[in-house]
Amino acid sequence: MLLSAGVSYAQFEVFAKRAFIEQAFGDPDGRGRPINVSRVAVRTGLSRKEVTRYRNLADTIDSPTSREFSRPARVLQLWHSEFVNDTGEPLDLSFDGSSPSFSDVVKRVGGDVPAGAVRAELLSANGMVELPNGKLRVQKRYFVPTAYGEELIVGLAFIMGPALQTLRHNLEVPTERFIQRVAYSDHLASSNVEAFRRISHQQAEQLMNNIDAWITQNETGDPGSEDSNRRVGLGVFYFEGGENSGT
């Protein structure tokens, strides 16, 4: 899913390191005191240099985060910012030969990936098109290989994230557990799967409509007030796939 949403391994590595580091800094030590870089390095398995670097990472176009974007994404960024005409519009570029060319952009990005591979990826993602005269014209400013990049981000933010938060809460505070229920079968006959899809959709839709109505009636209506800054919710999802592993 990450690959299809345009997230490279380098990006994932950067974000994963930052997540581990921020979490480690946020957790106090056994005496309730903030922990330092050395303690974070021990806890995360990263070097002190890496901890310091990612801790101070700035969200700018020149930061390591942006430099480690996938190459197609960096190609589009450079194309729109530096390979432009007098009015700031991106140039139509030949693949190779006369400069500036598409190959020049790829070389500026760096790395050992050939320009032909980047061209194939961008054409496949409709990030650019090939004109009748053979030149390449950029179509997008951002690289997302498939159409569900936004859906993936929303899913991670509103489904995966909250589900993991609930699991963590229930493990750490077992005396005040949040609702966490799963109803499933490893032996449902194939002939009944469609019926299960239908009934689960109908009943879940009814439940969520009732919950949504209650939330609407009880919201303060003032997002800026101190009494309305707590985020709460209930998530329901259907899953299917895979064979019974016997475990």
Description:
This protein is mostly helical. It has four domains: 9-67; 71-138, Arc Repressor Mutant, subunit A, CATH 1.10.10; 155-180, no CATH class; 185-220 and 229-241, no CATH class. 49% of the residues lie in helices and 2% in strands. It contains nine helices and two strands; from the N terminus they run αααααααββαα. The protein has helices spanning 9-26, 37-44, 48-55, 64-67, 71-82, 102-109, 115-124, 149-172, 190-218; strands at 128-130, 136-138. It has a two-stranded antiparallel ribbon with strand order 1-2. A hairpin with a 5-residue loop joins β1 and β2 (136-138). The protein is extended and about 70 Å long. Residues 58-68 have low confidence and may be disordered.
The percent of residues in helical segments reads 40-55%
Number of helices: 9
Q: Which fold does the CATH topology of the largest domain refer to?
A: Arc Repressor Mutant, subunit A
CATH architecture descriptor name of the largest domain: Orthogonal Bundle
The average pLDDT value, as a whole number, equals 81
The strand order across the widest sheet is 1-2
Structural class: mainly alpha
> Alpha-carbon distance between the termini?
26 Å
CATH class division of the largest domain: Mainly Alpha
Biggest sheet descriptor: 2 strands, antiparallel
| Uncertain segments | 58-68
Shape: extended
Strand content: under 5%
Q: What gyration radius follows from the Cα positions, in whole Å? A: 25 Å
Q: Provide the domain count.
A: 4
Report the order of strands and helices.
HHHHHHHEEHH
- Number of beta-strand segments: 2
